[in-house]
Amino acid sequence: MLNIPQISVIIPLYNEEQNLPVLYRELVAVLKDLNKSYEIIFVDDGSRDNSFETIKGLFREDENIVGLSLSRNFGHQVALTAGIEHFRGEVIIMMDADFQHPPGIIKDLYNKYSEGYDIVNTRRINTRGIGFLKKITSWMYYKLINLLSDSKIEPFSSDFRLMNRKATEAFISFQERNRFTRGLVSWMGFRQAVIDFEAPRRYTGRTKYTFRKMFSTGLDGITAFSSKPLRISFYTGLLIFLAGIIYAVFVVINSFRGMNIPGWTSTMLVILFIGGFQLLSLGIIGEYIARIFSESKSRPIYFLKDKIEKERKNIASQSN
Ligand code: UDP
Ligand code: MG
Can you say how many angstroms the Cα of residue 155 is from the centroid of all Cα atoms in its chain? Predict the structure, then answer.
């Protein structure tokens, strides 16, 4: 029978080979300091560098490491899910591989958890090395999502958090493919706490969140938790329709009074405005339909290509 580790650390990573050995050493130092038994689950999200080889190397040193390798790059949120689904510990701690979630904060997470919380979230109070633009768009995004959605998401929250077994099992029971972890966790309830931390710069490498990935994760966050955009486009459409009727009456009266001036500008404005709004509404509907489509196919969320862990020690191909 396997011993259940007290802490499962879950780390999704994409092309982070240089960060891994340093991160591993610092993590172990912190976990030993806490005097807790642990496992560290590295999820290689289809890296193109030698990240998985590096994980295998670390595993030879320390059998408390679990290495999962996804069959391709599925994205941070899915890699996180894969890791969480393999947890065995009493609590899990999910964090990034680039030191922007400093291992030292794990002690604070654990202390807060000991006060009797099921979930301990974190909030970045400052992030070194990110541009003004990223800060302001991030802030606007959280404002927008909280305006649109019924479940509240803390601004500047991050996917650096602790969850106990009960909350983790609840999280695993989510069936959806569209996975915006922050939103799902906030929606779950339980006893939740937040602690603040200052995020340093990346240790090495560049951000793996391209603008495209960020935009798509952001859109997932909104569409997964709110149907208000659909309603807003409906109401705006209604408003424009009513305004159109009033304007039509005005135009008819004017033409009876013989004031039929050629109104190219106003016609163009109306066409552009209504045309633009129609396309926008169609786009919003399209986004929701695309998500219904992707959920309705019920495809597996990810595939595992390789797995290394204590019991087997060798590499077993397995799908999930
Ligand atoms: N990541 C991943 N798959 C991806 C993109 C990122 O597993 O497709 C990992 C990445 O290696 C890191 C974490 O997700 O451990 C956060 O990514 P990153 O640091 O690049 O994002 P940022 O901190 O710049 O928002
Ligand atoms: Mg980062």
Answer: 13
